[in-house]
């Protein structure tokens, strides 16, 4: 249904939402709290239905559904409910001498009517977590879920109007045609999650109306590891970071490993053992491993694996079954850097391992690539940690783990350069949908006459 959903009357939809926004209803603290509670209620009451949709779309286990989507969303709602008053309170700031007497305030105000366009790999949280920010900020919103996760898109389209204010929060299903119609309109904010190619389309459409955008894009997140770490712990964290979130189909999954030469054999054998410990001798039978999202992505991934540059570099896994969209957790060793798999975001269960001489070579390799969404560094050497932090640029970083920065609501989450612009999570979500309006309240008791012409010599001496 999602991709062939009927086209909405976009101008009419937008003017309805604009009327609601202009009425001022969404700006009140009461409305924001009520809608945040309604969202929380929907997530809690509909856990089973959400689980079914995610299982249909991606084969996600109940555990992964809860830990990677619902738990985070519940935390976000609760934090926004708890912090809303504080976030909404205008901030008093210092004044310039020339303005005495006065008071200077920064008052957050909602951008207006926002469009949230989300991706398929975490189709609940990527649609609803930005919604938390939009509601908290006081915006009216349209959510356009990904058509590539049709069961989840249908769930959102059916249930959001049941729980939430239909005159202010709408879900529009559909694919490119639908988005194109929506993007023709003037929005006050567009929040997009997806790939950088489409990100450029979104930004170009937004530019016509000078609409501000947040672009949550992807990229190839590198992971550097050296021999100073506790190998067993590191291997567990790498395996769960790669295959535990949507089977490698996560924007923050480690894309490839950069490994100190002498350490490669030990790391490989521990990674292999850990994969078997987690997913069994035949991961195809594991209930804890999601599947590839659809046939197109299955074909894309198997073509990368079967490329002559790559096919003989498989050191673990490589098995696949098109019917069930299964590709085994697969390790590759020293694929040539010009191989197709090293030149696009893998976004699937394949993990290339590249041998490097040490941290300097890893830093050079990272710098040669577009800025990633995340960099992971496994080392207990503080000097190397500092080098990696200060000499590389990325949306975020985790030292001695992978992926987990996503769950810290105190850390703004977003990309830089090719991996995106803007950020969200926690207070940053509120900020993403708010304009910080500067207001100077002037008193009238003091006048500086030198301000006014005629500018006599005497005045100029003051
Ligand atoms: P996708 O195909 O679901 O597309 C994302 C959205 O863009 C969808 O709603 C889709 O309808 C829309 N879209 C697709 N083609 C379009 C077009 N031509 N014009 C206008 N809109 C269009 O998802 P995807 O882009 O394949 O998602 C995967 C990418 O997203 C990866 O690069 C991944 O790293 C990135 N991602 C980033 C984050 C993040 O938080 N930074 C999260 C998840 C995914």
Automatic annotation (TrEMBL):
Keyword Oxidoreductase: yes
Domain Aldehyde dehydrogenase: 15-439
Gene3D superfamilies: Aldehyde Dehydrogenase, Chain A, domain 1 (3.40.605.10), Aldehyde Dehydrogenase, Chain A, domain 2 (3.40.309.10)
UniProt keyword annotation of Iron-sulfur present: no
UniProtKB keywords: Oxidoreductase
Protein family per UniProt: Belongs to the aldehyde dehydrogenase family.
Matches recorded under PANTHER family: ALDEHYDE DEHYDROGENASE, ALDEHYDE DEHYDROGENASE TYPE III, ISOFORM Q
Protein name per its UniProtKB record: Aldehyde dehydrogenase
The species this protein was found in: Sphagnum troendelagicum
């Amino acid at each position: 249904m999602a991709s062939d959903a009927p086209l909405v009357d976009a101008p009419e939809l937008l003017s309805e939402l604009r009327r609601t926004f202009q009425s001022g209803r969404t700006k009140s603290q009461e409305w924001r709290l009520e809608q945040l509670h309604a969202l929380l209620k929907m997530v809690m009451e509909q856990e089973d239905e959400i689980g079914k949709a995610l299982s249909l779309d991606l084969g996600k286990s109940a555990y992964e559904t809860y830990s990677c989507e619902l738990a985070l969303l519940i935390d976000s709602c609760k934090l926004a409910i708890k912090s809303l008053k504080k976030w909404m309170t205008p901030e008093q700031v210092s004044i310039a001498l020339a303005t005495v007497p006065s008071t200077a305030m920064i008052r957050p105000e909602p951008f207006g009517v926002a469009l949230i366009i989300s991706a398929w790999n975490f189709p609940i949280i990527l649609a609803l977590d930005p919604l938390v920010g939009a509601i908290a900020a006081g915006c009216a919103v349209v959510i356009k879920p990904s058509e590539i996760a049709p069961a989840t898109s249908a769930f959102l389209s059916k249930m959001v109007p049941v729980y939430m204010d239909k005159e202010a929060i709408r879900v529009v299903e559909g694919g490119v045609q639908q988005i194109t119609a929506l993007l023709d309109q003037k929005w006050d904010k567009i929040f997009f999650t997806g790939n950088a190619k489409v990100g450029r389309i979104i930004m170009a459409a937004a530019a016509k109306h000078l609409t501000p955008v947040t672009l949550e894009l992807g990229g190839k997140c590198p992971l550097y590891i050296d021999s100073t770490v506790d190998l067993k712990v590191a291997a567990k964290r790498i395996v769960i970071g790669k295959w535990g979130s949507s089977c490698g189909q996560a924007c923050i999954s480690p894309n490839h490993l950069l490994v100190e030469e002498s350490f490669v054999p030990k790391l490989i054998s521990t990674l292999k053992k850990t994969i078997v410990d987690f997913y069994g001798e035949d991961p195809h039978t594991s209930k804890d491993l999601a599947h590839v999202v659809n046939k197109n992505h299955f074909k894309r991934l198997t073509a990368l694996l079967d490329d002559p540059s790559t096919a003989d570099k498989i050191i673990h896994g490589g098995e696949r079954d098109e019917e069930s969209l299964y590709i085994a957790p697969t390790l590759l060793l020293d694929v040539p850097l010009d191989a197709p798999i090293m030149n696009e975001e893998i976004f699937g269960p394949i993990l290339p391992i590249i041998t490097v001489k040490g941290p300097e070579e890893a830093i050079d390799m990272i710098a040669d690539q577009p800025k990633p969404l995340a960099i992971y560094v496994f080392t207990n050497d503080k000097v190397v940690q500092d080098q990696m932090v200060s000499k590389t640029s990325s949306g975020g970083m985790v030292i001695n783990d992978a992926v987990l920065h996503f769950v810290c609501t105190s850390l703004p989450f977003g990309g830089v350069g090719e991996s995106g612009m803007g950020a969200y999570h926690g207070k940053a979500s509120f900020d993403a949908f708010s304009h910080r309006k500067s207001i100077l309240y002037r008193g009238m008791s003091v006048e500086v006459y030198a301000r006014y012409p005629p500018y006599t010599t005497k005045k100029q001496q003051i």
